[in-house]
Write a structure and sequence with these properties.
By secondary structure, this protein is of the alpha/beta class. It contains 12 helices and 12 strands. The strands form 3 sheets. The chain has a 7-stranded mixed sheet with strand order 6-5-4-1-2-3-9. It is globular.
Length: 318
């Protein structure tokens, strides 16, 4: 069964509305989402959230923004993500309504960890947005855009490690339909395996150049492993961090043709919010206990790992 995009847009009309404020994850998928939505719908990127720290442009209510590349467990907050968030569909949490404004790839197919983990969504949030926005307007994907779009979130690894699952999701997303952005991306005959390897190798080289020869040129680090704020000066991202982020966005612009508009991206001053992040091994009991605490966000990333964030200060209720 294919995804009914028109029904999805009818249920979540905000996902294709213009000129909205959004918060993105500070990694390649989130930054691609921001660049894409700012180009095609005029969205403004007003902050970043990494599960430990949220930074939002001064005087903007966190709950008024759309969150991209994450699932926010608050019914009044809009979000789009691709993570597994449900443990067992036969035992829905009593507060599951908190996701009523969330477009989550796995939830679109009623997928949970207990029954569907091997066939969970294998792509990035950007690919879901390409499919949705592509219903409303033509999305152009030049040949050079294919490499970063296959790179993000390890998509190219999943294509080769789990081809059966990827093909099944392509069907669900309607990627077989010609003259669509997802068809241009995944059914493109330009890249042989060799050409893809060369293109990815070149991209890896460019990313290392951005980050002084080290990995991480595709991310903005806003917190350390202990949840402490890093790379900030006086509530602004440090100049070095800004420069690296803008270099990565310039690389994406060069590859995709999606323009970086400086006026669409906010780098400071920010309001800064800190949260409590934790990790548990998934089980029905532990999941029930977690959901009773009303987490702000969560993601089941492996059979042994459920990452979650608690909003102890009730920032989203203020």
């Amino acid at each position: 069964m294919n995804l009914d995009y028109q029904q999805l847009i009818k249920k979540y009309p905000w996902v294709v509305q213009e000129n909205q404020n959004c918060i993105v994850s500070p990694d390649s998928d989130g930054l691609l989402c921001g660049l894409f939505m700012s180009n095609y719908l005029g969205w403004k990127i007003v902050g970043f959230y990494d599960g430990k720290v949220l930074v939002v442009k001064n005087d903007i209510e966190p709950k008024s923004c759309v969150y991209l590349d994450m699932e926010i467990f608050r019914k009044e907050v809009k979000s789009v993500g691709h993570h597994m968030v449900l443990y067992n569909k036969k035992h829905l949490p009593k507060n599951w309504v908190e996701l009523k404004n969330c477009i989550s790839a796995n939830n679109l197919r009623d997928f949970d960890m207990k029954n569907n983990f091997p066939v969970k969504y294998p792509l990035g949030t950007i690919h879901l947005l390409l499919g949705i926005v592509g219903q409303m307007q033509k999305v152009n994907l030049p040949i050079d855009s294919l490499c970063p779009l296959l790179y993000t979130d390890g998509t190219f690894k999943n294509l080769f490690n789990y081809p059966d699952n990827c093909l099944d999701w392509f069907d669900f997303l309607g990627a077989k339909i010609t003259k669509t952005s997802l068809n241009d991306l995944f059914y493109n005959e330009h890249y042989t395996i060799y050409r893809l390897m060369i293109a990815l190798n070149s991209l890896f080289f460019e990313l290392k150049k951005i980050n002084d020869g080290k990995k991480g040129g595709d991310k903005i680090k806003i917190s350390d492993k202990n949840g402490e704020l890093i790379n900030f000066n006086n509530k602004c991202l440090s100049q070095n961090t800004q420069d690296k982020a803008k270099s990565f966005l310039a690389l994406l612009e060069q590859k995709t043709g999606w323009k970086y508009f400086d006026a669409s991206w906010h780098w400071g001053q920010f309001d800064i919010f800190r949260f409590q992040k934790g990790i548990i091994k998934p089980s029905q009991g532990r999941y029930n206990d977690l959901m009773s605490k009303n987490p702000l966000s969560l993601a089941i990333t492996s059979r042994n790992t459920l990452e979650y964030t608690l909003d102890k200060e009730n920032i989203f209720l203020k």
